[in-house]
Amino acid sequence: MTVVALAGRRIDMAGAEPARFPLNQVERVKHELFEFFGAVHPSALVCSAACGADLLALECAAELGIATTIVLPFNRTRFRASSVVDRPGNWGPRFDKAMKRAAASGHIELISAQAKDDDEAYALVTTEILDCAENVARHAPGQESNTQDNKLIAAVVWDGTSRGPTDLTEYFRVHALSRGFTVQEFITRPIP
């Protein structure tokens, strides 16, 4: 069984410098994710549902019939306002559709621990995505209690450059590597 855990950049705010995930790169990145999922045939995808990398991956998974688990730091109304519709593009309906699909299958995880602030809540989500992917692989029907025969892939959808110690995409990449995930990177900035 192959399970993909995914984290990455949100769409840039208008005029963002440096550009990390410009809106004009959405179709290219979505195509690359679709091709990747088609090649590795994951049984499951675990990610959050922010505008940009997350929602593109969830759309690809829906098109390919891949089971998904969405991890959110707090209720969907608050998350939608703070991480989905606050950036350019028509992300609200895409989020609603992804959430409806995940809710129908019972695969939405809310972080229950009380974080002291939003930054801590998002860091908890990043860790939970990796934990959940390991758990999905470990407890899949027909799987042994260990993940020896399972493949865990961390898809990192970013510009390839850390923003520093608070960069949760870099945190995800580093922790995925330390847990033995295979890391696959997708670049969100324009490729010359």
Structural write-up:
This protein has 192 residues and is α/β, with parallel strands linked by helices. The chain has a single domain (2-187), classed as 3-Layer(aba) Sandwich (Rossmann fold), CATH 3.40.50.450. 43% of the residues lie in helices and 18% in strands. It is built from 6 helices and 6 strands; from the N terminus they run βαβαβααβαβαβ. The protein has helices at 26-40, 53-64, 76-83, 91-105, 118-138, 168-178, and strands spanning 2-8, 44-47, 67-72, 108-110, 151-158, 182-187. It has a 6-stranded parallel beta sheet with strand order 4-3-2-1-5-6, with helices on both faces. Strand 5, helix 6 (168-178) and strand 6 (182-187) form a beta-alpha-beta unit. Helix 1 (26-40) packs across helix 2 (53-64) and helix 2 packs across helix 4.
CATH classification, class level: Alpha Beta
Biggest sheet details: 6 strands, parallel
Q: What is the count of β-strands?
A: 6
Distance between the termini: 36 Å
Alpha-beta classification: alpha/beta
**Mean pLDDT across all amino acids:** 93
Note the total helix count. Answer: 6
Low-confidence stretches: none
Taking all Cα atoms into account, the compactness measure Rg is 15 Å
Number of domains: 1
CATH architecture verdict: 3-Layer(aba) Sandwich
Q: Would you give the CATH topology?
A: Rossmann fold
Shape: globular
Percentage of helical residues?
40-55%
Report the order of strands and helices: EHEHEHHEHEHE
Strand content of the residues, in percent? 15-25%
